[in-house]
Amino acid sequence: MSSASKRLAWIVTSAGLAAGAALAQDLPKAPPPGLPSQPAAANPTAPVDENAPRIEFNETTHEFGVISDEKEVSTEFKFTNKGKSKLIIADVKGSCGCTVPNLEKKEYEPGESGQIRVIYNPHNRRGKQHTNVTVNSNDPSKSQVVLSVQSEIKPTIMTDPQVAAMGQVERGKPGKATITITSRKLDLLPTQVTPNDAKINAVIGEKKEIVQDGEKMISVPIEISLSPTAEIGPIQTQCTVRTSDPNKTLNFMVLGEVVGQIKAEPARVTLGGVAPGQDINQTFRISPRGDKSFKVLSIEEQPASVPSASNPQGAPGAKVFTIKYTEDKTVTPNAWIVSLTGKAPDDNTTTFRGDLLVKTDMPGEETFKVPYYGFIRQKPKPVAGQQNPAGQPNPSMLVPDR
């Protein structure tokens, strides 16, 4: 064969190999030995069973519009079995307790119609609402149909805002917040406000008539105050409002925090996830809120109790940290840097938490607590056939050790 012929044969062969490789990439890969094949994709053009039942609703969404919160409302979703065999409705379920669907019966012959009556209870709700009813049937093309119920609820009487936020209140100083109670009935008024915490006081103010969205209403302010003797810590109080209608009560929350002259930065030591026995190194600062310097006299770790079957109240957990603190004199007033070192628990503990009890010479704040929290990332279990960290294969779960 001449050199030109040999060169032509090489080109043709190379082109054939390249084309074959490209074709091989486009072909489906065979599964590894022992693994099942991938399921075939659904065929969207597959024939539909013409004799199957078929559920068709006149509408799948109902809008109640603007409604009051005083009484239930209802609607009916009508449907017809437009298939050629019996339609069986397995169940109908509301997405919440406020939406209750009722079905006359579960079986419908071809051409037969029915209805699902939906009762909606708007009590204790306000603003735009959207709930669903799910219908499960033996229609193979629509085995599950979701019916939508929408509304906008205007309460007869409501609080605004729903949470009275006091924010941070310095210990010993007054904390205040105000909410407004608005009534669409001129004779429906608040008569008593009862906080569930003695450090919160609530006083009903003078009522006045207002016009809102063209509607005459009554507006009543509620003045909320914090006792100056409240201790440092979170404020989380529920207030119950009784009205001139014994059947109408309201609730709102008072949230905030009483803080002292000393603060920790961050306020909570979050250690995140650590491995069993992992070294822990963490620092945080303690500084004054005002211009008064202070000394840290000691810091003690107080682990939280760990409940058990034999001791539901729990025994104190193990201490984790070695604690050191040094004064930072580069700032005025001074601050303190706290260093935590130790090892994460390596027993069956899943979380570890507690408080760091700081003792100082600050009058009125001789002690305060800095909480800490962490959790243990468990070691992954070895998988048969994989290499362990030492480089040796893990023993098979099918073959006993010898």
Question: What's a quick, concise take on this entry?
Answer:
By secondary structure, the protein is mainly β.
Explained architecture:
The chain is mainly β and 402 residues long. The chain folds into 3 domains: 55-154, Immunoglobulin-like, CATH 2.60.40.10; 157-259, Immunoglobulin-like (Sandwich); 262-306 and 315-376, Sandwich (Immunoglobulin-like), CATH 2.60.40.10. The chain contains 1 helix and 28 strands. The protein has one helix at 3-26, and strands at 55-57, 61-68, 73-81, 87-94, 99-103, 107-108, 113-120, 127-137, 144-154, 157-160, 163-170, 175-183, 190-195, 200-204, 208-212, 215-226, 233-243, 249-259, 262-265, 269-274, 279-288, 296-303, 305-306, 315-316, 321-328, 335-343, 351-360, 367-376. It has a 5-stranded mixed β-sheet, with no helix packed on it. Strands 10, 12, 14, 15 and 16 form a 5-stranded antiparallel β-sheet that branches. Strands 1-3-7-5 form a 4-stranded antiparallel β-sheet, with no helix packed on it.
- Name the structural class: mainly beta
How widely separated are the two ends? Answer: 65 Å
What's the CATH topology label of the largest domain?
Immunoglobulin-like
CATH class of the largest domain: Mainly Beta
Strand proportion, as a percent range, falls in: over 45%
Low-confidence stretches: 1-44, 394-402
CATH homologous superfamily designation of the largest domain: Immunoglobulins
Question: In percent, how helical is the residue content?
Answer: under 10%
Number of helices: 1
Order of helices and strands: HEEEEEEEEEEEEEEEEEEEEEEEEEEEE
